[in-house]
Amino acid sequence: MAIAERQTELDLDALVRPDRVHRRLYTDPAIFDAEMRLIFERTWVFIGHETEIPRPGDYMLVQLINESIIVVKGRDGVVRAFFNVCRHRGTRICTEERGHFSGSIQCPYHAWTYGLDGQLIAARYMQQTKGFDKRDYPLHAVALAEWEGFLFLNLALESEPFEHAFAPLIGKFRAWHMPELRAARRIEYDVQANWKLLVQNYSECYHCSLIHPALARLSPPTSGRNDLFKGPFLGGYMTMNDAVDSMTIDGRTARPPLGEVAGAELNRVYYYSLFPNMLLSLHPDYVMAHTLWPLAIDRTHIVCEWFFDPVTMARPGFDPSDAIEFWDLTNRQDWRVCELSQLGISSIAYTPGPYAQAEGLLHAFDQDYLRVMGET
Questions:
Q1: Stretch 285-304: mean pLDDT, rounded?
Q2: Taking the domains of the chain in order of start, what are their residue ranges?
């Protein structure tokens, strides 16, 4: 069971001009509420990496819109997701964000107990209730999928099969061996800007020479080439200068390439936005992933993680700080300018100008966003 589909009375004709998106899409709380219903309740949403729950019984709670979801690794090694709601009288079962179940999941109210697969295995004194059958009361499941080690949830009553939704990406990044990678660091940010501004900022380098001088010294801002430029997945690669090994503080790295990355890939960094809330960057020697959690029309919580080859991580002297410090600096520069954009768009004087040629992916994002928002 999943939450029921709901309709919206969002009037797109009143919001959208022929060539641009109206300011209300970034400032009106009613739009934010509609996005939660039409996007975050209906599409595959990125929630984290499977290594966050490495052992059978490990779990994490995910707050997706108004829903609390238990994501747990079963005895069989399979990761599953369930609404954090007891089937007896609806009590919230878990309150700790992370933890470990010692073989079962028990409600704190009346001790109804579930297996790690969600099946009800014990219900005190319910054998005295005529017609009661434990098989009729498993935890309500949430659709969950794993892709390249990353986990995605879909709350829709009838979700689009993940393999169909993610078809353009299946197998695309095989050379990086991403399922084998492990996180070395996580940094979280609270940004006073609309989530769409963050995706759009990530999707263009028109601003890079002005906002990111350190990045521009390593990778020419005009070097971008897109290979996904329509639909929910957008992006491509940028090249690094000849003397640059990696996107680090000094442009150097002692780390070997990931997996089977070789040839031209050694001189490229790939940047993709995965609608609605994942920003994925693939470097020759590490992978970086941003998770966007919209909190309000003008506020977004961001989790940024850096992933490396575990063999490389185990070597003496492994130090990922060269990559982490570089992107933490770049992130903060981006978040600041996105906050300035939010402030400007909120002005009654704001009228949007045309996109530059280098901002083609922003137009593509707008079109797909409007397509999804128009579905009821």
A1: 98
A2: 45-155, 174-374
CATH of domain 45-155: 2.102.10.10
Which pTM value belongs to this model? 0.92
Report which DSSP code applies to 138.
Answer: P
Over range 192-213, report the average pLDDT.
97
pLDDT (0 to 100) of residue 95: 96
The total number of residues shown for the chain amounts to: 376
Strand locations in the chain (E): 16-17, 20-21, 45-49, 58-64, 67-73, 79-83, 98-100, 104-106, 113-115, 120-122, 141-147, 150-154, 182-191, 225-229, 233-239, 268-274, 278-282, 287-296, 299-308
Report how far residue 140's alpha carbon sits from residue 162's, in angstroms, rounded to the nearest whole number.
19
Query: Bigger pLDDT: 245 or 2?
Result: 245
201 by Cβ neighbours in 10 Å (0-12 / 13-18 / 19+) ranks as: buried
pLDDT at 20 over 70: no
Q: Which CATH architecture has domain 174-374?
A: Alpha-Beta Complex (3.90)
Same fold, 45-155 and 174-374: no
Work out the widest C-alpha separation in the chain, in whole angstroms: 76
Q: Which pLDDT score is estimated for 18? A: 34
Integer-rounded Cα Rg, in Å, for the chain is: 22
pLDDT of 7 reads: 39
